[in-house]
Amino acid sequence: MSSVEEFRAEIRAWLADHLVGEFAELRGRGGPGREHEAFEGRLAWERHMAAHGWTCVGWPVEHGGRGASLEEQIAFHEEYALADAPARVNHIGEQLLGPTLIAFGTEEQKERFLPPIVAVEELWCQGYSEPDAGSDLANVRTRGALSPDGSQWVVDGQKIWTSLAHEAQWCFVVARTESGSRRHAGLSYLLVPLDRPGVEVRPIVQLTGTSEFNEVFFDGARTDASHVVGEPGDGWRIAMATLGFERGVSTLGQQVGFRREWDGLAALAGRNGAIADPLIRDRLVQAWIDLEAMAASARRGVDPSVGKLHWAAWHRGLGELAMDVCGAASTIAAGEPYELDDWQRLFLFSRADTIYAGSDEIQKNIVAERLLGLPKEARV
Which of 38, 281, 308, 328 is the most exposed place for a label (fewest CB within 10 A)? Predict the structure, then answer.
């Protein structure tokens, strides 16, 4: 038996032994558009995983991980999906900030912030987008300035579409710290606590009726001067590295939910007779093929922008397919005043997939200009 097969057998056996009792009720709960489901229970489950060494499996051993290879990480996510285990709550800290700190953080930052991520004791959110700087991240206006005594950064501004900020204790914030700077220059990557004066989090009610995204307002919010990743003014490079982690190996975890959704939709089509429609059958098969292609691309390290274009279109298409599988019933709320079933919620939430985490238009420009070497788009 190879090391990957041994690793797969180990996580499969552990999940079978531990996803029982109160944790068994969490099977299939959570995920995009459903982050409100059993959040406290999922948090307890993930802390249980941490206590047994099953968080941050791809991190180096010296930072609390298992040093799992890419093949082992794939095996972990596949077995997690097969067990119908609940969606993770610590994704942003484990898959985005953690790898960023391992690559660019100081030793003090690693010692302070990595252990609480491994233990799921502190949750993180991502402070990138702003009302006037969504996909155009270089246009951020949130400001950061050192206090007169140089001991703290003082942050003023607004972030929007901040996933799970209402559950997080910390936010990594891209802020303009050099007065008069423009575009990519003069930005810094700051680690800002959310539980101190000067921070207000306002949930945004979505089409689903839930509030996974938030606005975050900073009004004289403070963080230690040492909580800047990389050098002041070098935030653009650090932020782009984080996006690489967001759209890279971390999508393996995202595909856990995708696989679960496809399995559930195929089963529904069998139960309600929709599978008898050859067009529905063809679309289900094509969706399965595309999902397999997506997983294969992740294994070989596809470019992050190509990967984002792929999964966003796939997931939005799955939401549309779900409505056709459900038929006329998909147009009627499950209950008053606005109770949605899982498939209606998938359809509505997935409309945003081609917008958040970098819109399709921006990703296509990146592919055209940076990968294919085509002339840059004319900019005013």
Answer: 328
Nearest to 27 by CA among 80, 103, 90, 102: 80
The residues, ordered by sequence, that sit 6+ positions from 323 with a Cβ below 8 Å of its Cβ are 330, 343, 344, 347
Q: Where are the alpha helices (DSSP H) in 126-250?
A: 235-246
What is residue 121's three-state secondary structure?
coil
Q: At what angle do helices 304-326 and 278-299 cross, to 10 degrees?
A: 160
pLDDT tens digits for 35-50?
A: 889 999 999 999 999 9
Helix (H) or strand (E) holding 126: strand 124-127
Q: Where are the alpha helices (DSSP H) in the chain?
A: 3-18, 39-51, 70-82, 91, 98-104, 107-118, 235-246, 251-272, 278-299, 304-326, 342-350, 360-366
**pTM for this prediction:** 0.86
DSSP string, 28-97: T---TT-TTTTHHHHHHHHHHHHHTT-SSTTS-GGGTS----HHHHHHHHHHHHHTTPPPPS-HIIIIII
Distance CA 241, CA 126 (A): 13
Residues with a catalytic annotation lie at: 246
Comparing CA positions, the residue from 172, 226, 161 lying closest to residue 194 is: 172
Is cis: bond before 86, omega within 30 of 0? no
Q: Give the pLDDT confidence of 146-186 residue by residue, as tens digits.
A: 999 999 999 999 999 898 999 999 999 999 998 877 788 89
Local structure of 303: helix, strand or coil: coil
**CA pair distance 361, 201, nearest whole angstrom:** 29
**HSE-CB for 23 with a 13 A CA cutoff:** 20
Q: Given the DSSP bridges, would you call strands 214-224 and 152-159 parallel, antiparallel or unpaired?
A: antiparallel
* 135 confidence band (pLDDT: 50, 70, 90): low
